[in-house]
Amino acid sequence: MATGGACSKSHPSHLQTSIHVPSIVVDSFVLHFNNYIETQLAICHCPGAAVTIVSDSVVRMIKGYGVRSTQGNEAVNTHTAFRLASVSKIFGAGIAAALINKGKLQWNDRVDQYVPDFVLNPAEQTDQVRINTILAHTTGLPYHSYTNLIEAGYQLNDIVRLFRDIKINNTPGLEYAYQNAAFAMIELVLANVTHTPFPSLLQKELINPLGMQDMTFAYDDLMCSGNVALPHRTDSSGFRYYPLKISNKYYNTICAGGINASISDMSIWLKALMGQYPQVLPRQALDSLFQPMVKTTTDRRYYNYWSGVQDSYYGKGIRILDYGDHYKYYHGGYANEYRAELGIDPRYPIGISALFNSTCPLADVIVPTFFAMYEEWMQGCR
């Protein structure tokens, strides 16, 4: 199999390999890691953050740090809203998995079957683009095709009609190239299948049954929130942060980068991804999300350089990091100076999500540091 090519690599069930860790051991580590977070936030002067840690279906930590805006003193709490940016992608894939589990459609269904305006260039390759193709970023389209149009405020239906103007780089299904607009076509597919607008579908399939009370997916909803963390940027010193306006970009493609959430919502979502809400996301649906679809090792992104990572893949809406004898699952997001991070080690099982209202240095390292520190802690407790 060529690097970057299509992947049929098998993997152990994300739940079968679980190792029980006594609560007292996990709780002691969480206290240790909280000290690390507080120290690093003080060093990098990050305005505000929120972190949750879930282990064995229990929320071990959920906490806000700092302030919503450096021009005020309102503290970040567990219900403060942040933008998820590309961490939104796993929600779109999650709804697809849930509906496929109900028999509404199949992973290998053609996208143009549900989105007739979608045509590739050359057109004869169009029928090779399947639902799992768009969710794994293997459409054959060049990297970030028409992300500029998303940021310019074009509606998704209008962007889809323009794909025929871009010559593809490779046969669909063979090559990884990260997308926003093509990925977001899952919204049109699912709306067509269910005869339900995607925002209503998101509410019906995930937000309501999981009880994610703070989650929204519109610019106006975030602006009207009485508890929102403002995005921040540093001045020339690199240490003094000042707030920015919230951008309305990406709300035209919800599951590409338009979801807003609190850390309370993310603690619930972590539990769902770890199998604790089988009535919403059954185990079979989760396993399909975590199936490696394409290698991403040649992608010069920071996760490929984390300690212990031997290879990397993209599943459906989430990254899969190969540590040789096990996988970890990960996705990050950046938009409008917000950072969102999510990582799961299914062996224990334990997961972390962190939200930041700036691109502070801690956002880059919090997930790999969490993984490394936890493994070291486990070794010290044996």
Q: Could you explain the architecture of this structure?
A:
- With 382 residues, this protein is an alpha+beta fold.
- It has twelve helices and twelve strands.
- The chain has an eight-stranded antiparallel sheet with strand order 2-1-12-11-10-9-8-7, sandwiched between helices.
- Strand 11 (338-345) and strand 12 form a beta hairpin.
- The chain is globular and about 55 Å long.
- The relative contact order is 0.20.
- Mean pLDDT is 94; it is low at 12-16.
Number of strands: 12
Stretches where pLDDT is under 50 for at least 5 consecutive residues are 12-16
Overall pLDDT: 94
| N-C termini distance | 39 Å
Rg on CA atoms, Å: 20 Å
**Which structural class do the helices and strands define?**
alpha+beta
Strand order of the largest sheet: 2-1-12-11-10-9-8-7
- Characterize the largest beta sheet: strand count, sense, and whether it forms a barrel: 8 strands, antiparallel
Helix content: 25-40%
- State the shape: globular
User: How many helix segments?
Assistant: 12
**N-to-C SSE string, H for helix and E for strand:** HEEEHHHHHHHEEHEHHEEEEEEH
Q: Per DSSP, what share of the residues sits in E-state strands of 2 or more residues? A: 15-25%
